[in-house]
Amino acid sequence: MTDKPDLGALFGAPETSTFLGLQACDFCGAFSEKLSELGARIGLIGAPGATPYSAVGAYCRNGPDALRASIASMSANVERYNFDLGGPVFPEGIGQAVDCGNLPFDEDDPSTNRMNINFVVAVFLDNEMVPIVLGGDDSVPIPMLQAYETTGKSYTILQLDAHIDWRSEHMGERMGLSSTMRRASEMDHIERIIQVGARGIGSASVEDVQDALDWGVQFVSADALHKGGVDPVLAMIPEGAEVIVCLDVDALDPSIVPGVIGRAPGGLSYTQALDLIKGVAARGRIAGMDVVEYMPEVDVDGLGALTVSRLVAASMGVVARQE
Ligand SMILES: [Mn+2]
């Protein structure tokens, strides 16, 4: 097999280890003070894991670096016109966002993993920045969502996922990836949950679905989204709502994101996902976003990393334009 021509070389992309060549801000002792000096409005952080199930381990630990590597070829083009946005990703310049690298991760110390995620998200919020957290598996959002309690505000969650994640526990673990929305529903500062993209067989039981409905979750299955479009979903978001977007990338169709542990046919298109994200910012405000469950080891020729990293870049552009 011959080497493939490199898109980054074509564009003259410099070597970069950050997402899109963003300014780096290391997660370190002086993190909080240093961050406020940078003046960025968006903080990107990688979280290789939080509370992995022992049966499968931290199977998405390489997700954040693979997403950065995928979009590195665009780092020379960050000021070019992005047709997803009608202008450059960052209308006020690349300084609108920083990449704070990856959090430390220890597969055997989930409580410290969760503490680190909670801490860094709280620091972003304290600096009036919008956190974008790259997982890691879907246990990463639990400590992220907990951190929003410090703001005193109430939040709407828009979850995009092939699965509803309402199991009370799995193999004795309550903080794992199958319980994310159940744990969110127990947080006083979460006032509304809208879940989009469910389809096929997952781990949810009939009782789990009923518990979610009894709590007040509004479900829009993948099938309903394909038939009805994004407007009925956006109509569920009150004007001015503070919205946390929880994106499990298996919400997207496996033909465009094959790099997930549980591929489920019938998923969202890139356009549907981006239209939902744009619609959230138009109706309310994106207060944060997690992007979890990308698993490079089972991707096909980097196709999933391409889709997900471009969606993250476009989402940053949406956030950079809001308010
Ligand atoms: Mn899922």
In short:
With 323 residues, the protein is an alpha/beta fold.
CATH-scheme architecture: 3-Layer(aba) Sandwich
- The helix tally amounts to 11
Total strands: the figure is 9
CATH class: Alpha Beta
Q: What small molecules does the structure contain?
A: manganese (II) ion
Rg, rounded, reads 18 Å
Cα end-to-end separation? 50 Å
Mean pLDDT comes to 94
Structural class: alpha/beta
Strand-and-helix sequence, N→C? HEHEHEHEHEHEHEHHEHEH
pLDDT < 50 stretches: none
In CATH terms, the superfamily is Ureohydrolase domain
The largest sheet, given as strand count, sense and whether it forms a barrel, is: 9 strands, parallel
User: Which fold name fills CATH's third level, the topology?
Assistant: Arginase, Chain A
Q: What fraction of the residues are assigned to beta strands by DSSP?
A: 15-25%
Keywords, please?
single chain, 323 residues, Arginase, Chain A, binds manganese (II) ion
Question: What do these coordinates show?
Answer:
The chain has 323 residues and is an alpha/beta fold. It has helices at 7-11, 31-38, 63-71, 110-126, 141-147, 180-185, 206-215, 222-228, 231-234, 270-283, 303-321, and strands at 23-24, 42-47, 97-102, 130-135, 155-160, 190-196, 218-220, 242-248, 285-292. The model has no long low-confidence stretch (mean pLDDT 94).
